[in-house]
Design goal:
The chain is of the alpha/beta class. The protein folds into 2 domains: 102 residues, Formyl transferase, N-terminal domain (Rossmann fold, 3-Layer(aba) Sandwich), CATH 3.40.50.170; 100 residues, Rossmann fold. The strands form 2 sheets. A 7-stranded mixed sheet has the order 3-2-1-4-5-6-7, with helices on one face. It has a two-stranded antiparallel ribbon with strand order 8-9. α1 packs parallel to α6 and α5 packs across α6. The longest helix has 25 residues. It is globular and about 55 Å long. It starts with 9 loop residues before the first strand and ends with a strand. Bound molecules: glycinamide ribonucleotide. The site of glycinamide ribonucleotide (GAR) has 16 residues, from α1, β5 and α6.
Length: 216
């Protein structure tokens, strides 16, 4: 391929709220050349103290902070978020441990262009109130023997959008929410999130009737 026939770069905006290990998995995949024509061009955090911001700065990626409490309601917070996406020329938005609710106009402005990683096998342990360690607490309380992670497109329905990739992880006797969270991240999230981003950036994902087909 000559430079003028290379596929155009896709700008990836990553939304974070916490430790940012999934962001790190994306940064590492990008450095290994595994995101196709995708480039992480901005990281937006809902918290100024999120360690994810340090990870972004260490990788030389521009950052922004948009705190929900600086806006009177979800509607105005979502409007500010949308403005940031437009200013950054976003092609793909990745929610990587982003814990703040955005309203439906954000999903409608970017249909099948926002993806989220969830630490369970959707439709189990998902929806309102299921985030972070709470998801693993619920899985252990139910006594499931297999859990995992899901990457899906974001729609108005919380954790209800079309599923892109899933990976199962065994629950082990004596697991705590913390040990299970670590295994789900290591064995599932950090692999399927960069893989889904690559597939998106290589235009390999098609959505029809809420079902994702992968072209490879
Ligand atoms: C991850 O386990 C992610 O799947 C989860 O929060 C953690 C963030 O970790 N996200 C949700 O629960 C969203 N519903 P990280 O900041 O180290 O990537």
């Amino acid at each position: 391929m000559t430079p003028d026939t290379l596929p155009p770069r896709k700008n990836i905006i990553v939304l974070v709220s916490g430790g940012g290990t999934n962001l790190q998995a994306l940064i590492d995949a990008q450095e290994r050349g595994e995101l196709g024509c995708g480039r992480i061009t901005c990281v937006i955090s809902s918290r100024p103290d999120a360690f994810a911001l340090v990870r972004a700065k260490n990788a030389g990626i521009p950052t922004r902070v948009l705190r929900r409490k600086d806006f009177p309601d979800t509607e105005q917070y979502s409007t500010a978020m949308l403005e940031a996406f437009y200013e950054e020329y976003a092609d793909l938005i990745v929610q990587a441990g982003f814990m703040t609710i955005l309203d439906e106009k954000v999903c409608r402005a970017y249909p099948n262009k926002i993806i989220n990683v969830h630490p369970a096998l959707i439709p189990s342990f998902c929806g309102k109130g299921f985030y972070g360690l709470h998801v693993h607490e619920a899985a252990l309380k139910k006594g499931v023997k297999v859990t995992g992670a899901t990457v899906h497109f974001v729609t108005e329905v919380c954790d209800g959008g079309p599923i892109i990739l899933q990976k199962a992880v065994n629950v082990e006797q004596g697991d705590t929410p913390e040990t299970l969270q670590k295994r789900v991240m290591e064995q599932a999230e950090w692999h399927i999130l960069p893989e889904a981003v690559r597939l998106f950036c290589e235009d390999k994902l098609t959505v029809k009737d809420d079902i994702v087909t992968i072209a490879e």
